[in-house]
Every structure is written in C-alpha cells, then in structure tokens.
C-alpha cells in the first residue's frame, strides 16, 4: 500500500478487544496494515494521544457502543470515522451522528472494495457511496439556503428547496427523490407554498421563485 505524508492510523472501536473481528482481520491482511482494537473506555486517552486517529466501527454494534460513549461524541474533530457492515440505507440524521464520516461500507461490499477504500482514506481521501454523498450535500446546502428566504414570506428551508426545484421544471417524483421524501409530502409542501405565496399553481410559484430566489 502506498504511503503518504498524510498517513493516519485506523483503530477499530469495539466492546471487547480480545475478540477478533473477521472483516477487520481480513482488511489487515489485505493491506499489510496494523489495525489496533480500541474499547470505549480507552477513547478519552486516544483523544489526548493521537490527532490523526481514524475510528472504524461495525454498524451492527453501533447502538451499543454509542450508549457507552455518550459523554464523548464521535463528532469530535479529532476523530474521523469509517463505518462497516451497513445493511440498510441510512437516514441523514444517522449519517450525521457518525461525526466526521470518511468512509461507509455496506455489508454487501467486497473485501477488495473495502480494502481499497480504507487505503484511500488513510491517505486523506473520502470513500462514500454516491447516495450518502448526495444526502450530505443536500443537508449542508439547505443549511446555507435557510438564510436565503425573503423576509416578507415565512418559507421553511424545505419549501425554499422545493421552489428552487420548480424553477428547473422538476416533477413531483423528481423532487421527492432529490429530497429523500415521498411524493405525498411534496404535494403537501406545494400546497403550503401556494398558500403562502398567494399563487394558484406551480407555474406561478416558479415565476415568483425566479424573481425572488435567483441570488
């Protein structure tokens, strides 16, 4: 594995470091890399010792682990995180709970893909599935856009984003997919938008948006 000046170390966060984790052991062998095991009570000491430590977490054990480290959130900037064995699509809130997420691997990913991703992460890159990246991009974009609503109309962040989608001619199904909500929820938001803007349809709403949300 090629090394760089930005080389960091991966530590596997687990409940019992005397029990070997098959996937972690295989990654170690594939990359010829030492991945020490770290228990929750050792996390505070890790904060003090190493500012380039990456925490690897098995998603199947995350709930139990998070209960043990509530006083030490993973969002601490010292730690970057890799989550393995994810067996479902995660909500944005779940993704954000992992703090500085650098890598996410599904249970269906191959050892080759996981090993390659870990190698890139160690060297400073991100390795996230496209849908996860899209969720994070949408989240941080709406944080910025929440400051852009005209003062005279009390629009929510979600309503602003839907208005911007209307400007592009997006259908309800496209808006639902882009914002990770149902079409029924999109229709509900559109009803509220039309009411707040005193317009009758999406054409009029789009025209309003082009006038007020172009900046």
Describe the structure.
The N and C termini lie far apart (46 Å). This protein is 47% helix and 13% strand. It has two domains: 120 residues, Response regulator (Rossmann fold, 3-Layer(aba) Sandwich); 67 residues, Orthogonal Bundle (Arc Repressor Mutant, subunit A), CATH 1.10.10. The protein is an alpha/beta fold and 215 residues long. It has a five-stranded parallel β-sheet, with helices on one face. It is elongated, with a radius of gyration of 22 Å. It comes from Vibrio japonicus. Keywords: DNA-binding, Transcription, Transcription regulation. This is LuxR C-terminal-related transcriptional regulator.
Helix content: 40-55%
- The H-and-E topology, N to C, reads as EHEHEHEHEHHHHHH
How many structural domains are formed by the residues?
Answer: 2
Beta strands, count: 5
Which structural class is indicated by helix and strand composition?
alpha/beta
Radius of gyration based on Cα positions: 22 Å
Largest sheet: 5 strands, parallel
In percent terms, what proportion of residues is strand?
5-15%
Oligomer: single chain
- The side-by-side strand order for the widest beta sheet comes to 2-1-3-4-5
Mean pLDDT: 84
- Poorly predicted parts: 1-6
The DSSP helix count reads: 10
CATH architecture designation of the largest domain: 3-Layer(aba) Sandwich
How far is it from the N-terminal to the C-terminal residue, by CA? 46 Å
CATH H-tier superfamily of the largest domain: Response regulator
CATH topology of the largest domain: Rossmann fold
Report the principal-axis shape.
Answer: elongated
- Name of the level-1 CATH class of the largest domain: Alpha Beta
